[in-house]
Amino acid sequence: MEKELLKDEQGRPYISWDLIGNFMVDAFKAAGVPEDDAKICAEVLMESDRRGIESHGCNRFKPIYIDRINAGIQKPVTEYEVIKETPTTLVVDAHDGMGMVASHKAMETIIEKAKTYGMGMAAIRNSTHYGIAGYWATMATDQGMIGITGTNARPSIAPTFGVENMLGTNPLTIALPTDEEFPFCIDCATSITQRGKIEYYARSGKDTPAGMVIGHDGSAMTDSDEILVALTKGTAALAPLGGIGEERAGYKGYGYATVVEILSAALQGGSYLKALSGMAADGSKQPYHLGHFFMVIDPEAFLGQDEFRKTCGDILRHLRASEKAPGQDRIYTAGEKEYLVWLERKDKGVPVGESVQKELIAVRDAYNLPYTFPFE
Question: Stretch 212-235: mean pLDDT, rounded?
Fold first, then answer.
């Protein structure tokens, strides 16, 4: 008797972590990515799905990475060039290679710097999409350290009182080690939503909630497919965190997005704003030339990791134990929901919808890879 296919609450079948991981590694290799680098890239994508951040997981494997390699705007072999290095800092040129590979090497380096000197910081230029920012911040918490990272991106956000997409979704991500089973990790865009979430809405056939995106005439846009086209044309923009204008403090999201833009470009002599559009003057596609920054702080250089972990954990436990609003069952702290998703998925795998299934099959067939998926 054929084994019944395990599905999630949306009816999406699960693919085991081993299967999806091995497949992505082999597909990356077929696209020209060296095996060790391919393993890093696949791991970052799977970690996104483990945390339930499906906007940046395996559903981006083909369109953001494989397709860009095939289009010639992202290099499968990463030339990692150290431009400048001091005992506590690092500047890298990734030469439009795999952003996840360059980021992994940079984080490994500054983690070691932080172990020696208490702090380390890296800045990367000419990079590409580096996956979920939280992956890099939690590389630090895995070592008992504080991790901070941000990246610029193709223009999507309008400045306060503007309608033109100027800034990327520019996450400012911070992870803190605790004495609990999971770290505190705030990993979110400086816009109300991000392009990846709208891509997810479009793949799922859903409208984007009103108020997240504005057209050039200042009106709200909700058709997800239309929004993606308009964002690319520059005729729509995402609202900054807080919303458009000052009434709901949209200037705060705008300000933080600007901080990330500057730190992702000014320290390393990188590109910024409209130069990150991925389009040349003649309208042809070109590399995005993204920039990232990373900071690692070792609490051992202060009063010790154990002291920091306990105090951090105590603060989070007090917050979760505080009085709840009527009708609410519990209060969460950042990183907790992602940990709960991992507990739910660790033995099941990653759920994949119909559109992602078609993409996986297309990549398999294009590279003639010997895989059969459970949903076939």
Answer: 89
